[in-house]
UniProtKB/TrEMBL annotation:
Name used for this protein in its record: Glutamate-1-semialdehyde 2,1-aminomutase
Keywords: Isomerase, Pyridoxal phosphate
Enzyme's top EC category: isomerase
Family label: Belongs to the class-III pyridoxal-phosphate-dependent aminotransferase family.
Molecular function (Gene Ontology), one example: glutamate-1-semialdehyde 2,1-aminomutase activity
Designated gene of the protein: hemL_2
Organism: Paenibacillus allorhizoplanae
Catalytic activity, EC: 5.4.3.8
Statement: the UniProt record of this protein carries the keyword Isomerase: yes
Amino acid sequence: MSKNIELYEESKLYSPGGVHTSIRNVNPMKVFTKGEGAYIYDADGKKYIDYQGAFGPIILGHSHPYVNRKVIEAIERTDLYGVGCTDLEVELARKICTHVPSSEQVLFCNSGSEATYHAIRLTRAITGRNKLIKFQGCYHGWHDYVARNMLSSWDMIGKRDPGSAGMLDEAIDNTLVCTFNDLDDVERTFRENKGQIASLIVEPIPHNIGCVMPQPGFLEGLSELCTAHGALLIFDEVITGFRHDIGGYQKVAGVTPDLTTMGKAMANGYPIAAVAGKREYMQRFNTYPGGDVWFAGTYNGHAVGTAASIATLELMENEPVHEHIFRLGEKMRSGIRGIHERLGIEAYVAGFGSVWTTYFMNNEPKNYSDLQQNDAELYVNYRKKLIEKGIFKMPMNIKRNHISYAHTDEDVDTTLTIIESVLKELVHK
Ligand SMILES: Cc1ncc(COP(=O)(O)O)c(C=O)c1O
């Protein structure tokens, strides 16, 4: 019997569905036992070029030797104290405040969901208002403030669409949902909820639906609208942060939000996240004497996450990490466009830097609603076929792919050859 199947069957005995995050339960189901550089291996020993990248954290490559060494060095002398601060926290905070434009001060937590929760509650305390704006299709974590109108079914777009049973009505209804790239919609929402909106949270590039780029002026427009209406702007850079630039997408776009949340690529797969922003706002957290917004966590600033993050940022500072992943990202996108041309396939290859996806539709999507045009069946079948041939991409509709510093030109060439053969098979059946 396949070891994959055997372990998965056992996993289902002990954990509901056999997986530890909802959307990990996919078909084909894999049990992974090894990751090294650009490659991952399943329990049957099959090797894949990995573009899932753990949903984004893996920016340097799996089990990166430098990051691992720095983690091991750190935990041989230090771990967690639950009091005071550590030298590693100071070093990491200094790096983030040096690189990320909006980060005058920063606090560490363990996941992106914690970071967005803290950021949003802080904006409610600062403004004395309750409401929040998010965008249809964006994901900001699992908590009640934001878990609505994520990957909504098409008939629920923009409607009241809580993502989970058990959510508080008050949390759902205080979160208003707008259309990405539509400043008129945001403006109308501010006007209709005058004096009630504490903040607006946005993925500057909504990567949770692949790669929908902000149109010129959109992020600037959000910043202006927030200022005009006395609300705070939160950039959720949990995916874009450190992946698109060491300073985050805010550095690329030249738009500085009031608060920023970060995670994922921050530590190449080790668990740590952060919330950062203007000093005057951050000092409302009760880590500061007299601060009145609760901020805590037993594992905050653990040596494993902080050491891994310092090592990851050091590599970004000292080696051409972004140059490499951007060049390979462009090579991949233009290679795929060439394949589409040769095969006469109408598709839109979207992407930025190291991230890309192929939407099977013939124009650029500007928001979640536009993605209804994508041929979802082809999208998922394409990914499943690629997995069979050793290219791992998430086998799910409108998901993105990630290139890491460990991927090589040869990996991209191999991937393009396999993509061409799979598309030939699927489209010219
Ligand atoms: C943009 C964004 N924000 C927040 C989160 C939540 O982060 P975490 O899964 O670490 O809680 C995610 C996770 O995918 C995300 O993509």
